[in-house]
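Batch job 17 of 40 flagged for manual review because the log was empty.
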Amino acid sequence: MSGRIGREEGRTLFGLDPAAYEAARPGHAARVYEVLVERCGLAPGTSVLEVGPGTGQASRELVRLGADPLVALEPNPALAAYLVDSLGARVDVRVDALEDAELPAGSFDLAVAASSFHWVEETLGLTKLFEAIRPGGWIALWWTLFGEGDKPDAFIAATSPLLDNLHASPTHGAEGRQAHALDSGARLGAIGDAGFDDARHAIVRWEARWDTNGIRALYGTFSPIARLDDSRKTEILDGVARIADHDFGGRVERTLTTSLYTARRPE
């Protein structure tokens, strides 16, 4: 690892090709939405704030489950435009980072961040969410890891040499600690420090499959690769495709791990 990707740079990377990002990413575990309904009270008429919606993979499910209004804070103009085009009037898209957004106090029932909150300054971001959520309202923050976290993953092992000396995303975690999403002590501690209670951490495992072109496209959406010049990026992605073809028969099946945190603002 040769360095870390800063927040400002990270917020630009996923808007380089929103359609490719949307096609390559696998979405989110169905169980996450069940928890939003069962535990966090998501239902028709729930006022929802979404942080970093990207291309709207979670946004569409939130709308389907009744989020109304759904206010989406997306700091990347290209992603915000893509989201407006795909969801239109069903979502109030604001081109703003959570840290800078002006949000009416106590105006949301639920705030969510789907694989995006590592691009937010955690202490300030959680404070902003606490202020924006009504008493009794909920937050749900989740991340998906490609693999089972602390268990060996054959495809990750095979492709890791291709990624040597790349900058790391904030998802990599603090020095000497677990991956950001799996560092439950740090995440739950920060959530509690912001004033939330009844905080819980859950692990959801689910399966996804890609053909060679699909897994090549997926790796192209990873921030350490997306930031590279075209020549270096192509070299790595072609290597990923060769491994998928030669070692995995053109079919990569992986267990994904979603790390989900929920908490409530006290009444």
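Reviewer: the log was empty due to a logging misconfiguration, but the result itself is present. The mean pLDDT is 93. Unflagging and moving on to job 18.
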